[in-house]
């Protein structure tokens, strides 16, 4: 124990004697550890954001969706013609799903209605859906103000609406939307609830859903069928789209996650029998996408960590280079210690202690820097759009979430300490193998 303490004192004394050189040598390790932690935290933060968005779709859900078949997008003379296009899920399909999934936790239909949403002089393309109260639970929706649809609304065919967060901001900037009215085409609805931000306005979630759920308007399914029917007229530049879709989407909720893929396969087979080729039907399985996202995120974490680890390798080479120079510089010191009875083991231990202490301290500083950079990125990136000069180059909702993980800190530090020791072995052995007599004569 006394030998170890004395060796550590000698090692630390030499590091203090050449403070600037020690700091510059440690800089490679510091930056390498910081790079590993920061890169992994960025990858982990992006992974968690994507997984959170997918979770919001409902990990137990299978979403069956009507989609316009490619052949309906025909052009003539550079403009689309106006004609009636029938496609997608029918009420008969909905009955088939209900019959074949008796143990389903819920089967929730959605029906897209209206061409425009209007209030005063403001108007917006309609993203209105007739649905049932079960959608709130199945789609993990939360109410910020007011209430959601009820069974009484369905029974009474009430003209009530629950609006998304962005609709509330756009149409009711300076007033409480609860109790106010809004029009879908020429039909007037009373707003009874406002949805909390869904969090799928961008990124993986919105791409999968195909729309920003914060722009949704939900009305009772019975009201949608009675007031709007099955046809939806939409006017675009140079054409009028006249589509007939009985059911736009169906949320099929499995009893547990273990049966999600079974439900997905059965739903796909049933729909393929009724709609050969599934040209007008699409299936979204959040659980399947969730598992894929987890695997992709793990791969990216490994790739990012490997790229950042190159900095550690460079730092290790720097330590070996400096220690080799130190061996040459301290040849006479080595000769004196050998002449006074120090063994090769003592000399090796002294140099290894120096590199081990240097790399360990550098690892700790690198951990502090990496954690600090990760937290700074999480806070600073959303502020970039408001920055002078450069702010215009960033979208308003830019985010780069980070998540510092314990395993990345532990791995980065241990690798840094090991790097110092590994790259210090050769200089230490070279120092220990010096001939004492030759070393004493060295000038």
Could you walk me through the main structural features you see in this protein, from its secondary elements to its overall organization?
This protein is of the alpha+beta class and 443 residues long. It has 2 domains: 2-53 and 292-441, no CATH class; 61-253, no CATH class. It has 14 helices and 15 strands. The strands form 2 sheets. Strands 1, 3, 4, 5, 6, 7, 8, 9, 10, 11, 14 and 15 form a 12-stranded mixed beta sheet that branches. It has a 3-stranded mixed beta sheet with strand order 2-13-12, with no helix packed on it. The relative contact order is 0.19. Mean pLDDT is 81; it is low at 72-82 and 201-207.
In short:
The protein is an alpha+beta fold and 443 residues long. The chain has helices spanning 2-17, 19-56, 91-100, 134-138, 151-156, 165-171, 203-209, 221-228, 260-274, 286-329, 331-339, 344-380, 406-432, 436-441, and strands spanning 61-66, 84-86, 106-113, 116-119, 122-125, 128-131, 143-146, 160-163, 181-184, 187-195, 217-220, 231-236, 239-244, 249-253, 281-284.
